[in-house]
Amino acid sequence: GDDRRLTVSENLPALNDPRAEDPSAGNFSSYTFTFDHVYSEDSDQQSVYNNTARDAVLSSLSGYNASIIAYGQTGTGKTYTMEGEPTPRLRGIIPRATEEIFGYIENAVSERKKFLVRASYLQIYNEVISDLLKPE
User: Fold this and answer.
1) Long-range CB contact pairs, 28-34, < 8 A, 24+
2) Are 93 and 79 in contact (CB under 8 A)?
3) 104 CB burial (10 A radius; 0-12, 13-18, 19+)
4) What separation in angstroms does the CA of 7 have from each of 29, 31, 75, 112, 134?
5) What is the pTM (predicted TM-score) of this model?
6) How far, in Å, CA of 68 to CA of 82, rounded?
């Protein structure tokens, strides 16, 4: 529903006027974003993994390619969300996904099944792509 949409517009009066049909009318720019979930500062790493990343991880176990992207300003928690801390409760998306993938493989062992796991951990900073798993 509308509770999962956010509209950003230069035309603030039109955004606040319920009679306005198009907030971008005229020379104003408006952008509408949709989102699945908003986390508070009290959200725990397990909830973030379950709500955001787990479906992508499980689909990769069915043979689909999956990507998890953390985007935002410096200092907003992207690295913490992806990596977390070494304690079990504070582990981020990457260690949780790795554990889930290799746990699945370990439990699905048979002579007829083979698994190939490929992972990238990329950073785009100032329009330069770096592979954080293979620093140069």
Assistant:
1) 31/7, 32/5, 32/6, 32/7, 32/8, 33/5, 33/6, 33/7, 33/8, 34/4, 34/5, 34/6
2) no
3) middle
4) 10, 6, 24, 51, 39
5) 0.75
6) 9
- Cα dihedral sign for 11, 37, 63, 68? positive
Cα dihedral 104, 98, 47, 70 in deg (nearest 10): -140
How far does CA 104 lie from the centroid of its chain? 22
Q: Judge contact between 99 and 109, C-beta under 8 A.
A: no
- Strand-pair partners of 34: 5
Hey, what are 71's tokens?
């985007």
Residue 37 near residue 54, CB atoms below 8 Å: no
All residues at 6 or more sequence positions from 97 whose CB lies less than 8 Å from its CB, including other chains: 49, 53, 57, 68
Buried b (16+ CB within 10 A) or exposed e, 55-72: eebeebeeeeeeeeebee
Tokens 């603030």 correspond to what residue? 12
64-114 per-position pLDDT tens digit: 999 999 888 889 899 999 999 999 999 999 999 999 999 999 998 788 888
